[in-house]
Design goal:
Layout lengths: L25 H4 L5 E4 L2 E4 L13 H9 L14 E3 L5 E3 L1 H17 L3 H28 L4 H5 L8 H6 L8 H23 L8 H16 L2 E2 L5 H11 L1 H5 L7 H10 L5 E2 L3 H18 L7 H11 L7 H5 L8 H10 L11 H10 L23 H28 L3 H5 L2 H16 L13 H9 L1 H12 L2 H19 L6 H23 L2
Antiparallel strand pairs: 1-2, 3-4, 5-6
Helix pairs in contact: 4-7, 7-8, 9-11, 12-13, 12-23, 17-20, 17-23, 20-22, 22-23
Length: 522
């Protein structure tokens, strides 16, 4: 690729017809008001003092004077260029239009990445300043604390707005200054991290810049200040949006205790309301998932509003979905298209993990003795953790299905209660395994992920066994549908996202809660 540099273009030398011809006035040709800038070339306009004596063939002389090729225009000679009474050349409108077109083309060829980035930051800062300015005037008229808590997350930090009426140390003027300073600091860190990143720079330098950018993201989060969690929790629980959902019986004191227990910064300084809502939603999800009815209508509707409506999903088609099988960015976009609220995962990985643990939604189910199954105490990366959690989940699903079906239909339940087409596939897989000298295994271990829902929703099986556990076919179908893309990406060793982790923990938590309560009641 040929890189454009202005230094590679030579400026035209001054041109005179004879040694007696006066040179152009250099001190005036650099004025932007008197010249047309075209890349690095300048052409004197009729109003300038730069003169080029002209005797004949004005086009050729003009070309020599400017260093450009001037096209011959149709029409009379007087329509192209003229000589005034002082002998200076005056361009016609057609010549000016041609040169203006050349100027626009030159601007398009200039490198603009750095300038665009600077303009973007300037625009963002101006927009943020405008939002803050208007927010201050709006908040002066607000008296309802709930309204302040529900203000747009792009405005001032609502947690401080909530404290303003009850604490003398806070006032709106100080609030505006504090939040502006906090936002400027976080923006400065991002800009500093971005300045060294370029696809054309040294790979090591760019990698370091990306690491710095990742660190800058974590710096945009904070922990609630002392006594702040109490007011935040009270406001969240009393707000209309959460009251309508019943919060899964979540109380203000319980929510406050969980906020105070967080050790990882989790409040986004520029989106405080969104952080509070997401944290409260997680705690409500945990309460619903661990309640006596994790698949009751109210619980299912709560999950559906935040994780999307998956009731009409074809599990087979999910495996061939290009977006859900694509990159992590494509998968996040596909989740959003299906109704998953991506603002729920606007946390650092540590904060998301901690908030879901506090909600009672660990990746691994607690066994009856309180320990975790199939996981060590050492820290493991997200992909490995999700893989182990999925393996554990499938073992739990197979174990539960085998237990309740054996209890209802006896030892021969597979032959009588599994659809014939599914049973043929299991036998085929088992035959191949035996030919490869694999050890003997129960036939259900050859089931695909989609086979579990086929067995559960079979008419007789559902009516006599599983309806007592899950209450609604559509709800258990949604659980398996939300888990299906997570499982597919995990088994293909693709990079997983925080949305994958959230869906895994919420839906496996609901399943474990429902099945273990059923088992405890036997």
């Amino acid at each position: 690729m040929l890189l454009w540099r202005s230094s590679q273009i030579q400026r035209p030398v001054n041109y005179r017809l004879s040694e007696h011809e006066p040179a152009p006035l250099q001190d005036q040709t650099n004025s932007s008001a008197q010249t047309v800038l075209r890349g690095t070339l300048q052409l004197p306009l009729a109003s300038t003092s730069s003169r080029y004596r002209h005797t004949c063939r004005r086009h050729q002389h003009l070309a020599l004077c400017t260093g450009r090729t001037i096209p011959t225009l149709t029409g009379s000679r007087s329509s192209c260029c003229k000589i005034d009474r002082r002998g200076a050349i005056s361009m016609s409108d057609q010549i000016k239009k041609f040169l203006e077109d050349q100027e626009r083309l030159a601007r398009l060829l200039r490198p603009s990445a750095t300038r665009s980035l600077e303009e973007t930051f300037t625009t963002l800062n101006q927009a943020a300043a405008a939002v803050r300015s208007s927010s201050v005037h709006q908040m002066l008229e607000m008296e309802n604390r709930t309204a302040a808590a529900l203000i747009s997350s792009s405005a001032l930090d609502p947690s401080r707005i909530l404290l303003a009426p009850t604490s003398l140390e806070y006032c709106l003027a100080d609030l505006a200054a504090q939040e502006a300073e906090r936002y400027a600091a976080s923006s400065g860190v991002v800009r500093s991290a971005m300045k060294d990143y370029s696809p054309f720079s040294d790979l090591g330098k760019s990698a370091e810049a990306l690491r710095n950018l990742n660190e800058s993201f974590t710096h945009t989060f904070r922990l609630p200040e002392q006594n702040e969690a109490t007011l935040l929790a009270s406001t969240a629980v009393s707000s209309i949006a959460y009251h309508a959902a019943s919060l899964g019986s979540l109380q203000a004191k319980e929510l406050c205790d969980r906020m105070a227990a967080m050790t990882s910064p989790w409040i986004d300084v520029s989106r405080t309301t969104a952080s509070i809502r997401a944290f409260t939603d997680f705690q409500s999800m945990g309460n619903y998932a661990n309640s006596a009815g994790p698949y009751e209508a109210a619980a299912s509707e709560f999950f559906r509003e935040r994780l999307g409506d998956w009731r009409e999903t074809d599990l087979i088609a999910l495996e061939d979905d290009e977006q859900l099988s694509g990159s992590s960015e494509q998968r996040s976009a596909a989740y959003a298209d299906r109704g998953v609220d991506l603002s729920l995962t606007n946390f650092t990985a540590d904060a998301l993990d901690e908030s879901l643990d506090l909600a009672g939604l660990p990746r691994m189910p607690a066994s009856r003795d309180g320990s975790f199954t199939l996981v060590s105490a050492e820290s493991i990366d997200l992909n490995t953790a999700i893989y182990r959690a999925l393996v554990t989940f499938e073992i739990e699903v197979r174990g539960f299905i085998s237990f309740v079906m054996h209890r209802q239909y006896g030892a021969n339940w597979i032959a009588t209660q599994v659809p014939e087409s599914v049973l043929e596939q299991w036998h085929s897989k088992k035959d191949r395994a035996m030919k490869n000298w694999e050890p003997e295994r129960p036939l259900i271990e050859f089931a695909d992920f989609n086979d579990y829902i086929t067995i559960i929703t079979k008419k007789q099986n559902w009516k006599e066994v599983f309806e007592k556990v899950f209450m609604s076919k559509q709800d258990i179908l949604e659980t398996m549908a939300r888990l299906s893309p997570v499982r597919n990406q995990t088994m293909h060793s693709r990079i997983l996202t925080l949305e994958d982790d959230m869906l895994l923990r919420v839906e496996t938590g609901r399943f474990y809660s429902a099945t273990r309560r059923f088992m405890a009641g036997l």
